[in-house]
Amino acid sequence: MRIDKYLKVSRIIKRRTVANEVCDAGKVSVNGKVVRASYDVKVDDVIEITFDTRSIKVKVVSVAETVRKEDASSMYTSV
Question: Which CATH architecture best describes the domain 3-78?
Fold first, then answer.
């Protein structure tokens, strides 16, 4: 699954277009390497998203095409 779609499905970022823009701006890195929106997410990847004043770092636990809103947070753990 593409990283922009993963960020949307896991509800880390609310909209896929926003996730795509964040990736294009170079603010998303996986395992310490800046990636584009087309990066293929795998289990055990560590994703770091840098915003203006803070950053979010999560580890991928599962990858699913669709998930219920209540179960979205089970797709990752905070690092």
Answer: Roll (3.10)
